[in-house]
Design brief:
By secondary structure, chain A is mainly alpha-helical. Helices cover 76% and strands 0% of the residues of chain A. Chain A is built from 14 helices and no strands. In chain A, helix 9 crosses helix 11 and helix 11 packs antiparallel against helix 14. Classes of the chains: A mainly alpha, B mainly alpha. At the A-B interface, helix 1, helix 7, helix 8, helix 9 and helix 11 of A face helix 4, helix 5, helix 9 and helix 11 of B.
Chain lengths: 306, 284
């Protein structure tokens, strides 16, 4: 447990170091990115000083890394602390992402098992092709189609998210469309992973033996094949968390959902690199936690057998 | 990681015939050709207004007008060329790099471990965020940095796929014989390993093309790729979204174009790949 956590933490630190180096290596910095026309060189130098960009590279990296554990993500290009800018929208994005994640896991397990129970038959082929077709479609395209279908033509769901006084979406119905838009491509991808893992398992001797013993297919699938497939499924689904978070960012802009995506859209317009780096840190931390959970589940399942 | 394990399913073996392959890849090829030839078929130029803003389909404009009254159909015919070309470029470069690095990784285990850790790290970074970070820190922006970012972020994971397919080959008799003969690393990689990885490389290229379309159009939608007034499907969706009630076709047509392209290319690459390879590429 401690070993797996340390390994995940180390990988996260490496990601942060690589990201810091990449932003450094690229031409242009936060001070020039946020500069306006007609600004003098003295103004630019003043902002460089404010953002600490006149310090040596190693000193800045050390300051930045040591500030992270205290929850300090640095200063945005416009002088406000990144933590402050992300404090309100982050929980909303996590709510959206977590709902979509749970629904994806349930749906892809159900569809994957359903397909695996009828190998090679029509159901299996239909589920397989639909899954393949759906994971390629970008989330914003799914969102547009949903928006036209469920909101503008039928009027069933609100098209735009209205933010309540507490900064969260006003009603839960506003979560439905963004969640569906994220779930469709994710389920397509993960159903294939579940189906593939179950196919690998059904070739193992103990599952074939159970099958030849004449046990019902459902029993063989759920009691004999699925437990062995859990490690592969957990790793596969955890690996796609990054895709889910990336999709959430895009879907939010379209539905005007009060999450990280809306903040990022502003950051893109203002070319605010420190703010985007802050979001990358949060996303990296979330993905690391999900991967750690998958590691632990894997260790538990395989450990019990050893 | 499943390349080494057996991939026997209980169903009938799915070895697609030549006719079936042609039937399944035809939609993707047709669509790509149509998008590449589109600019020559457009009835209007992409820059001049021909209707009122968000005019519904009718006289002179089959799909109506966009937010500035420009012809949606003409912009649609122009908007896919650069998107597909960049996605193809990303797919080709990532596949090439991944094949070379993957072959070297299995022959030089020390480098293999480094590449494996790189893939572990790159999984933590959502590709959309990574592209945002790289393309924005790049002065000038535009399509170039997005393509470079997509290549940089896509390669580590692709290397892992090639390496896992090449690992069993590295211990085969003919490779060990070549090593004992004293052949150089490039010879073993190109003449002994690569010919046996054709199916994996082809499947990888297909999947990377799909991924390229996904990533490039996401970047376009987030306005970090092509800038207005360029005609680009993803950018059209973003620009015309405010007028979705007045002329839904200005948003729906480019959305459907992206969806059809992504789906047809994905189904095509999926049906071309042998079953074992398809699994190795998608579930590693």
């Amino acid at each position: 447990m401690a070993g797996a956590a340390a390994r995940r933490a180390l990988l996260l630190v490496v990601l942060l170091a690589v990201m810091f180096a990449a932003v450094e290596a690229l031409p242009g910095d936060a001070a020039t990115a946020a500069s306006e026309r007609g600004e003098s060189a003295a103004d630019l130098a003043a902002r460089r000083h404010l953002l600490g960009l006149d310090q040596p590279l190693w000193e800045r990296f050390w300051d930045w890394m040591t500030a992270l554990p205290t929850g300090d993500l640095g200063t945005s290009a416009h002088g406000r602390p990144v933590t402050e800018l992300l404090a309100d929208p982050l929980p909303n994005t996590l709510l959206l992402g977590a709902s979509a994640f749970v629904l994806t896991v349930v749906l892809s397990l159900a569809l994957g098992c359903w397909a695996a129970a009828r190998p090679g038959r029509l159901t299996d082929r239909i589920i397989g092709h639909t899954a393949t077709a759906s994971f390629a479609v970008p989330e914003f395209v799914v969102s547009v189609l949903l928006l036209l279908l469920l909101s503008l033509w039928t009027g069933w769901l609100p098209a735009v998210t209205v933010t309540g006084a507490d900064g969260a979406p006003a009603t839960w119905t506003m979560l439905i469309m963004p969640v569906i838009a994220l779930v469709i491509p994710q389920t397509g991808w993960n159903t294939r992973i579940v189906r593939g893992a179950l196919a690998d398992q059904s070739a193992t001797p103990h599952v074939e033996a159970a099958f030849l013993d004449g046990l019902p297919t459902r029993h063989v699938l759920l009691r004999h094949a699925l437990p062995g497939a859990i490690p592969a499924i957990a790793t596969g689904i955890a690996t796609s968390t990054g895709m889910l978070l990336g999709g959430a960012v895009v879907v939010e802009t379209l539905f005007n959902y009060p999450g990280i995506g809306t903040v990022l859209a502003g950051a893109v317009a203002a070319r605010d690199t420190p703010l985007i780096a802050g979001v990358v840190i949060c996303a990296g931390a979330v993905v690391s936690l999900v991967l750690l959970a998958a590691d632990l589940l894997r260790a538990r399942v395989l450990g019990a057998r050893a | 990681m499943s390349a080494a394990t057996t991939t026997v399913t209980k169903g009938p073996p799915s070895i697609p015939g030549r006719a079936r392959n042609v039937r399944r890849t035809a939609p993707a090829v047709l669509l790509v050709l149509l998008a590449l030839c589109g600019p020559f078929l457009a009835p209007h130029t992409i820059g001049t207004p021909v209707t009122a803003p968000y005019a519904p389909p009718g006289e002179g404009a089959l799909l109506g007008g966009d937010q500035l009254g420009r012809d949606v159909l003409s912009r649609l015919l122009h908007g896919g060329t650069a998107l597909i070309a960049s996605a193809l470029l990303v797919a080709a470069v990532v596949t090439l790099l991944a094949t070379l690095l993957g072959c070297i990784a299995v022959l030089r285990p020390a480098l293999g471990r480094v590449l494996e850790r790189t893939a572990d790290v790159s999984i933590l970074l959502p590709s959309v965020l990574g592209i945002m970070l790289i393309a924005l820190a790049w002065p000038g922006g535009g399509r170039g940095p997005v393509v470079i970012a997509a290549i940089a972020l896509g390669t580590p994971y692709a290397v892992r796929i090639v390496a896992s397919a090449a690992a069993p080959l590295a211990h085969s008799g003919y490779v060990e014989a070549a090593i004992i003969r004293g052949e150089q690393l490039p010879y073993i990689a190109l003449r002994e390993l690569l010919p046996n990885l054709r199916a994996t490389v082809l499947a990888l290229f297909g999947l990377r093309f799909v991924e390229g379309i996904y990533v490039i159009s996401m970047a376009g939608f987030l306005q970090i790729g092509p800038q207005p007034p360029t005609a680009d499907w993803a950018l059209m969706v973003r620009e015309n979204a405010p007028g979705i009630l007045l002329n839904p076709w200005a948003v729906l047509a480019p959305s459907l174009a992206i969806a059809l392209l992504a789906i047809s290319v994905n189904l095509a690459s999926n049906s071309l790949a042998p079953h074992s390879v398809r699994k190795a590429v998608t579930t590693s």
